[in-house]
From TrEMBL:
Protein name according to UniProt: 2-keto-3-deoxygluconate kinase
Enzyme Commission number(s) of this protein: 2.7.1.45
GO terms assigned for molecular function: 2-dehydro-3-deoxygluconokinase activity
InterPro entries reported in the protein's UniProt record: Carb_kinase_PfkB-like, KDG_KDGal_kin_Halo, PfkB_dom, Ribokinase-like
Family: Belongs to the carbohydrate kinase PfkB family.
Domain Carbohydrate kinase PfkB: 3-296
Signal peptide location: none
Length: 316
């Protein structure tokens, strides 16, 4: 197994176009979650991936697993008679209104997930284990479970990756920093948006300085700092590698960060070096922006075309 991820997957409900939820008469229905997004994205690019979680034994829970399996990853979940399927509602809009997310995830089955319920043997056998800062924000139980899974992966020799992925609607900066820093000793690869490094992790300086500072303080093997339209950079073996963003016509920006991480990890698990993985991450992220939904349903050929400068070619 190349990559195993752990976290919550929601059902995303969104009205067409830029319609308001309060006036909507129909809703688009998709599965979406940071960790499953990464598993799907990496799986589309050739990695052997699995997603671990806990779901209600209901039609909605089965909708999640059926969707993820069809999109390219293997869901391995603990089924529960208690708890519910979390959802979120998405209103797309341009400025000045802006896109808005409304969560409805309280009492979701996943918030009670413990390691003994999960297929942790998959983590032991994987090359990489990935989760995000969203997961420990959901409950005290999940914070403890995330810590235990990262520790288990470290003991098994599995490379661990964590994306800070801060969500202001889930917790405050200080609480997030306190919890995340307890996880850092068992994290090999840290991914953070530059804004999260500044506001959540309380770092100052350029993106390169932030990456070096974090790597030095916590002993990360690799620190990736994403910078939106300015691209991304990585600090690895005390070297700084920079990657510009690829231009893209944005249809749906939700999930762009997960697409970047999926592309990056897919390339790393097959032996690509850090600069190569950054390029794959940036290309996957650009392609994601052109399609609806949270996942990047792309092919290796499409990523390679973007890297070769042929991304705008007409496919006849």
């Amino acid at each position: 197994m190349d990559l195993v991820t752990f976290g919550e997957t929601l059902l995303r409900l969104s009205p067409p176009g830029q319609e308001r939820l309060e006036r909507a008469t129909e809703l688009e229905f998709r599965a979406a979650g940071a960790e499953s997004n990464v598993a799907v994205n990496a799986g589309r690019l050739g990695a052997d991936t699995a997603w671990l979680s806990k779901l209600p034994d209901s039609p909605l829970g089965r909708k999640v697993t059926a969707t993820l399996r069809a999109q390219g990853t293997e869901p391995d979940v603990a089924w529960s008679e208690a708890g519910r399927q979390g959802t979120y509602y998405l209103e797309h809009a341009g400025e000045p209104r802006g896109t808005n997310v409304v969560y409805d995830r309280a009492d979701a089955a996943v918030t009670t997930a413990t390691p003994d319920e999960l297929a942790t043997g998959r983590i032991d056998e994987a090359d990489y284990f990935y989760t995000s800062g969203i997961t420990p924000a959901l409950s005290e139980t999940l914070a403890a479970t995330t810590a235990e899974l990262l520790e288990r992966a470290t003991e098994a020799g599995t490379t661990t990756a964590l994306d800070v992925n801060y969500r202001a609607k889930l917790w405050e900066h200080e609480e997030a920093r306190d919890v995340l820093e307890t996880l850092f000793p068992d994290v090999d690869v840290l991914v953070t948006a530059e804004r999260d490094a500044e506001h959540v992790l309380a770092r100052e300086g350029s993106a390169g300085e932030i990456g070096r500072d974090l790597a030095a303080e916590f002993g990360f093997e690799t620190v990736v700092v994403t910078r939106g339209a300015e691209g991304a950079l990585a600090v690895h073996d005390e070297e700084v590698y920079e990657q510009p963003a690829f231009e893209a016509d944005t249809h749906d920006a939700i999930g762009t960060g997960d697409a970047f991480v999926g592309g990056f990890l897919a390339r790393r698990v097959e032996g690509g070096d850090v600069p190569d993985a950054l390029a794959w991450g940036a290309a996957t992220a650009a392609l994601k922006r052109t399609m609806p939904g949270d996942t990047a349903l792309v092919t290796r050929e499409e990523v390679e075309d973007v890297l070769a400068g042929d991304g705008a070619a007409i496919n006849r």
